[in-house]
Amino acid sequence: MADGRASSAQSGENLLFLTDEQLRQGIEAMFFAYRGFTADPDRILSDMAYGRAHHRAVHFINRAPGTTVNNLLNILGVTKQSLNRVLRTLIEDGLVESKVGKADKRERHLFLTEEGHALEQKLSDAQRVRMRMAYREAGPDAVAGFRRVLEAMMDREMRNAYGRLKDSGT
Amino acid sequence: MADGRASSAQSGENLLFLTDEQLRQGIEAMFFAYRGFTADPDRILSDMAYGRAHHRAVHFINRAPGTTVNNLLNILGVTKQSLNRVLRTLIEDGLVESKVGKADKRERHLFLTEEGHALEQKLSDAQRVRMRMAYREAGPDAVAGFRRVLEAMMDREMRNAYGRLKDSGT
DNA sequence: TTGGAATGTCAACAACACTGACATATGCTG
DNA sequence: CAGCATATGTCAGTGTTGTTGACATTCCAA
Residue B134: which of A25, A10, A146, A165 has the closest Cα? Predict the structure, then answer.
């Protein structure tokens, strides 16, 4: 199983495809690529009092304005205490606004302020530059495959969340 | 630039391909997929005194037995203090062996013990299960594209490290 | 022999996650 | 209205992983 042969019975067409070696290369590619993926925003954030967690919060609030805390919690997959620490600083610093819900006053709806939008732009611009280069270098067919594999790699709930966001974006 | 149109001048063929919206979907796919990617090993590790950093160390020592601390440092992209804390516990617990170099006695060459191999197997088995399912679901062409985009997303040094590991694996 | 490289270690600190407990306000249901 | 559930916020404690900075040891090479 660890000697380079296929690690499970495969039909002939797959014997040369799903070897442990091929899978391990994919695993390592994910590891190295994710480092690159986060490197640029991380560099920007390290000059401020913010970190990757702030980036994620700002990204998804921008993506789904008016989202509730609970919804954000589900998307980010962290505890409310962890998210709250991040949201508190963002609200204190005037990047995020929290509005009491109209229908249900227990809920808080989150919005980016102008300043919050500015940060989001700065971070996502940096991340898009790399993404655009990678997409252009690899070509449209590769991008389609890239997306298909990533989707298949997600947990079910994350795939659902991803689908909802994808559909909401025009 | 944030209104959904392509964010940089593109030739016609790319106007429908590299919109900010498409790029953002790719960014979110990476985020959600990476969560799935690490979920299974993380679950296993949380039952021990180990974390993701231990997994990474064990993975690359297994991949390149006899690697030096410095080499591992470059691959993992962390400080020696951070790596050392992880290596120390792995050595203390008898999962990793550190051998003084023959040619250069300053160097330490790292190897997995039997117990270390057992943990590596357990972790990478879990990770491969998900990878294999994703690969199978997406198909060979998608996988090729997946790998091409990921490679294009890496920093140069990481792409080099990745290439060396890839070539070393038969 | 001296300088520098490789390694290891100590201390302090920060970011980010977790659990557990508790408070507050609100909504819903009987 | 009473009681329970939900949504949010907060406090305290803890763990993992990363960082800087400082310093010691060992050893190679000029």
Answer: A146
